[in-house]
Amino acid sequence: MRFLKSDGRLIGVLLVLAITQLIGWGTIGLPPIVGRDLAADLGMSLPMVFAGTSTLYVTMGLCARWLARAFARHGARKVMMVGTVVAVPGYVLLYFAHEPMLYFVAWVILGMGGSATLSTGAYIMLNEVAGRQAKSAIGALMLVTGLSGSIFWPTTSFLSGHFGWRGTCLVYAAMLFLVSLPLYAFATPRRAIAKEGGTAPAKQANALSIPRSTFGLVVAAITVNAFVTFGLSAVFIELLRAEGLAPAQAIAFGSMLGVIQVSARGLDFLGGGRWDGITTGLVAGTALPVAMLLLMLSEGATWAVAVFILLYGAGSGAMAVARATIPLVFYDQAEFAKASSMIALPLNLASAISPPVLAGLLTQFGSRGALGLTFVCSCAAVLILVLLGRRRPQVAAAGVV
């Protein structure tokens, strides 16, 4: 790929972010695997356990705007290092949690660390290094990070089976401190701002003037889709079990999801910038309601579950790229960090609300309740993207070849 050949240090940054984002997203995926054990040990309902993840997302969203200044002033490297140090005590506190209060405090701490290290920070770092090549760089990163569930769901199941969920928390704290922190400290540029023509930071003289209504559509499309994909990710194993799969079979099927998501992201990446994030979102978003409708009408047939995972995996995998790159259609490099930080609050709030909502629907009404709501939301996201596609800036449209 041309963007990899254009700057050798970008390969190193991508490798670091691939490892650290895998660890970051993979380690917070405890509830989908050990949720029932957590509920039994802490005397909580399953929806309350998933509310821990919601607490993380709310905290991430609330910290986003404050961190926007830190990213601009100090760069992504320093902010992500501090975020990693902050996150470590969160897992230690989870280890010691014997009551709901301490459990939720731990997720607040993890949210504070995650706001600096998960996704947004990585995209800002790639934007600093890659400039106009940021979309391709983000796509390349997502080829790997999409495997977080496939790698860490079985890993969490294995570790919890040998050390319990509390011991697993300590292992994950050690991974952050001994792997992620040194990588940020010693293997990323101190302050890398991409150069245009080799002389000046990539920054347009005049940022694109985007109407508030258009920004509202960007936020709405990203937020509604995040509600669906983050919520289903949290309850995916339970959803498959509600469809009649045995626990081990549900984990095996669920682990296939990440491979399919990565395959879909790979197709977008191989497109080489021939289409933008809106086009990716429209194509991918259409697959999601089709997948949910199929599963709702199938009465739990194994073949339908397999097709659902294929369609949902492909759609959600490509939509993850779209969520990250749609702002690049409307904002230049100088404005990207600010726009991403503004989007982070509603995105994370939606991500926070969806797991307990879907877990509650799953508990009260079975899989049809959760699938029905996500079907409606997925259709709404596609309609918003259609409207958004008509508002592409002429500069962005001309750049798609």
From TrEMBL:
The family database entries (InterPro entries) matched by this protein are listed as:
MFS (IPR011701), MFS_dom (IPR020846), MFS_trans_sf (IPR036259), Proton-linked_MCT (IPR050327)
The membrane-spanning stretches of this chain are: 12-34, 46-67, 79-98, 104-126, 138-159, 165-186, 215-237, 279-297, 303-331, 369-388
Keywords, comma-separated and alphabetical: Membrane, Transmembrane, Transmembrane helix
Task: Give the matching Pfam families.
Answer: MFS_1 (PF07690)
Record-annotated Major facilitator superfamily (MFS) profile domain positions: 13-392
SUPFAM superfamilies, sorted = MFS general substrate transporter
Q: This chain belongs to which protein, by name?
A: MFS transporter
Give the organism, scientific name.
Bradyrhizobium barranii
